[in-house]
Specification:
Layout lengths: L1 H16 L1 H17 L9 H20 L13 H17 L8 H28 L5 H13 L1 H6 L6 H20 L3 H17 L4 H12 L6 H22 L2 H4 L1 H15 L13 H5 L1 H9 L2 H20 L3 H21 L13 H21 L3 H16 L14 H6 L19 H10 L12 E4 L26 H5 L3 E5 H6 L3 H10 L5 E5 L2 E8 L11
Antiparallel strand pairs: 1-2, 2-4, 3-4
Helix pairs in contact: 1-2, 2-5, 2-6, 3-4, 4-5, 5-6, 5-8, 8-9, 8-10, 9-11, 10-17, 16-17, 16-18, 17-18, 18-19
């Protein structure tokens, strides 16, 4: 025990002396599980069918100075397209994908690399943001845990917005607190820049950012004049950053206004894909708490709930700075969930940014319990509790590279309820399994260009295509979009359907047709012993027109 505690103290001392090197260690630690896997595993429909195409249009706008081409998506997803543009430029300029035995894997690996580097850097930067605000020991522990937190780990590896937004929101929350508490222009500039980047990633985070900034205002009594000046300066930095990173705001503002209006409409209305109609209304509204409860570590959720109950009560009697900070974290996380609760479009991954502040709350709660046990002479119990927590934390790595299949003990318990189990939060995969589907079809003698990634694949035999698979925007003779009209689905030779499609009852008419025809899967893709993709052979009888 003494040797262990001595080693921990050495790490703390070393991190205090060399914070930059500590950041580098955390960066490498966070990057490894995000890159050491076949990248094709993590390509979903939104990446293959939307973001890769949008990025190429974005790059065309940069190369031709056509600012209207920088307006590609209602999200608007500008941050993601910048990062993917760097990866695409590396592919086009240096042809690095040729270094891989499978060029498709090399192509996607290089395309994703700037995104993976960024999300890993965001995870490592948490240490620098907490250093000086909390003890070094606490900052080290939280950053280590954040690097492997299941929700952040999963979504930070997708070519999508949720991982970026999750990493950014946690840093923004801390930067705003320090900007107000320390009256620091350095933290004000940092917070403003990160807020602009987050807004360019997805606009539906803006209300949560505004609420968080308001909550940060009460971090300190007085000095209101200075704080208002800081806020004015932050607003100017936000505007300048928005224009620099997205010049279409000035040069193509009519297109920007139109697409943002479309984004607001899409974000406040039901998803365009038909989904389950048998879901209980309360369960549908509770998709975000269910998602957080079952997709992160059990100990994190338990301690976070305990903190959410205890800290408001304690703060009534003890208005210390630490308790104020914990209440602020709770308010920041709650602002994300409350904004999402009132929006009609429900996608579980939208709640991912809320998990960062909850991790800090859970760790504060654990630290308080540890200190109490130590004071009572029960340090062994505290060490045992910490060891169990660490084991459960690292257990997620056992699922590599299919981290999306992670569900904690709470999820296994809630699944016993037939009503709660209808929640889309239980969907086991989002793109995983289709790379394996492509490999299976290849084993049948299919050409590589015959398949593509989507929630539901309808695939045909096609002439061999020298382009990379299964990420072609539209393979010849194949499905340009998944089941969007009857001509594509009814003539497909195979249907590869994600288990998420069944879990969410997406395309209900298709699923009813499969049941009516009595089809059985000719092959099932299993990931970590979980059925992920069911492959059916089309023997005729499909009526089509499943999208509407």
């Amino acid at each position: 025990m003494k040797q262990l505690m001595g080693a921990l103290e050495y790490c703390v001392t070393w991190a205090n002396r060399r914070p930059g090197f500590a950041w580098l260690c955390f960066f490498v630690l966070a990057l490894l599980p995000r890159v050491l896997a076949p990248s094709g595993v993590f390509i979903n429909f939104d990446a293959a069918g939307k973001w890769i195409i949008r990025t190429k249009g974005f790059m065309d706008g940069l190369s031709t100075f056509d600012l209207s081409l920088l307006v590609q998506a209602p999200h608007p997803g500008v941050t993601l397209m910048w990062l993917m543009s760097v990866g695409e430029w590396m592919n086009q300029s240096f042809h690095l994908y040729r270094l891989w035995a499978d060029p498709a894997i090399g192509y996607i690996t290089i395309l994703k690399l700037p995104l993976l580097i960024t999300t890993s850097a965001l995870a490592a930067t948490l240490f620098l943001f907490l250093r000086g605000l909390t003890t070094t020991r606490f900052a080290l522990a939280v950053t280590l845990l954040w690097s492997f937190e299941p929700i952040y780990l999963v979504f930070s590896r997708y070519m999508h917005l949720d991982g970026l937004l999750t990493g950014l929101f946690l840093l923004i929350t801390i930067a705003l607190w320090r900007a107000r508490r320390e009256s620091s222009w350095r933290w004000s500039i940092t917070a403003a820049f990160l807020m602009a980047v987050a807004a360019l990633t997805r606009i539906n985070i803006i209300p949560a950012l505004i609420f968080t900034a308001l909550f940060a205002s009460v971090a300190r009594r007085g000095a209101w004049r200075r704080w208002l000046i800081q806020l004015g300066g932050m607003l100017g930095i936000v505007v300048a950053t928005l224009i620099v990173l997205w010049p279409a705001l000035v040069g193509a503002w009519t297109e920007v206004v139109a697409i943002i209006q479309r984004g607001i409409k899409l974000g406040t209305t039901e998803h365009e894909v038909p989904s389950r109609v048998d879901q209980h209304a309360i369960v549908r509204r509770m998709i975000y708490p269910i998602f957080l409860a079952i997709r992160s570590w059990t100990w994190l959720i338990v301690y976070a709930i305990a903190g959410a109950v205890v800290y408001p009560l304690v703060s009534i009697r003890q208005r210390t700075l630490r308790h104020k900070f914990q209440l602020y974290l709770l308010a920041a996380s709650g602002s994300v969930l409350i904004v999402l609760f009132f929006a009609d479009k429900k996608l579980d991954r939208y709640a991912a940014p809320a998990i960062g502040p909850l991790l800090l709350i859970a760790m504060f709660m654990f630290t308080a319990l540890w200190q109490r046990l130590s004071l009572n002479g029960r340090r062994i119990a505290g060490v045992a509790m910490g060891a169990l927590m660490l084991v459960s934390t690292l257990d997620v790595l056992r699922l590599a590279p299919y981290y999306q299949t992670f569900q904690n003990e709470i999820g296994l318990l809630l699944k016993r309820s037939d009503t709660i189990a209808t929640s889309a939060a239980f969907s086991p995969a989002w793109g995983e399994g289709y790379y394996e589907t492509a490999k299976y079809l290849e084993s049948l003698g299919w050409p590589k260009a015959a398949v593509r990634n989507a929630r539901t694949l309808c695939v045909h035999r096609t002439p061999d295509d020298p382009k990379l698979y299964p990420f072609n925007p539209a393979p010849k003779g194949g499905c340009s979009r998944p089941l969007y009209d009857l001509t594509e689905s009814v003539k497909a030779e195979y249907l590869a359907i994600s288990s998420a499609t069944f879990a969410q009852n997406v395309y209900p008419r298709l699923l009813r047709d499969i049941k009516r025809l009595g089809w059985k899967p000719v092959h099932t893709i299993y990931l970590n012993h979980q059925p992920t993709v069911y492959i059916y052979r089309n023997t005729g009888g499909l009526r089509g027109n499943y999208y509407r």
